[in-house]
């Protein structure tokens, strides 16, 4: 039993350390040399992340229908989280438009993908990308609608990530195989995305503001607790295979996405509060995620 416990601790360390190390490098570098990541983030969203999505979905081993139950479970976690937390907004004293999006839309990209891959191996990458796609699609549809019900969803078709998703879905239903040089090209572009996401998260952490720490702490607790309770409640109904259920638990425990802050700034929806929710939530995940990994590994 002691050996097993030590192996779990070692596996958690091996999973968390590379992520924290890259985030820490981004944080320390930006503290010493103030860094504007806006261009790098735009390139990552427009080129590297779409390449990662298409790379995974166009692979010969990718079988999209096998991930339908996992994708449906992720969709339910996102929507039900908002429904459960919405009545608490008045108790906490925060506007639902400010609080609900960070509680619903998690850091499934620059934290979720590398975390799941490092914890469960390279074979988990397709599942991690599927979870990211569900979260991202809902964020740019339902999430934007929450902030502004006049949002035109047709604008989504101009986004490279959406186009890459559609192309990847179409490709996954064919028997086509990318020529080796083109496959290497797309794979190499996609491999840039995850480290750059983590580095950008570290840079963003330099702007953490503890002025609104109470709302941040509420978010840091409610986001993972609600997600995990919903995931545990869904399993008896959906009967996900054990490995997919493990991925879902990690997804459910993820902190709010950094994108929530960028979107709130664009819509002028109390970005100072959203920044506190997002950044303190990501700090708080250092406590929740190891516990979830200890349960799933």
Automatic annotation (TrEMBL):
- This protein's UniProt keywords: Cell membrane, Membrane, Transmembrane, Transmembrane helix, Transport
Membrane-traversing stretches: 12-31, 68-88, 100-121, 127-147, 154-173, 185-203, 215-238, 244-261, 273-295
- Has the keyword RNA-binding been applied to this entry? no
Where located? Cell membrane
Q: How does it sit in the membrane?
A: Multi-pass membrane protein
- Specify where it is mainly localized: membrane
For whether the record's keyword set contains Signal, the answer is: no
Q: Name one GO biological process term.
A: transmembrane transport
Which Gene Ontology cellular component annotation is one that this UniProt entry carries?
plasma membrane
Q: Return the Pfam families for the record.
A: Mem_trans
Give the protein family.
Belongs to the auxin efflux carrier (TC 2.A.69) family.
Protein name as catalogued: Arginine/ornithine antiporter ArcD
Organism, as annotated: Nitrincola lacisaponensis
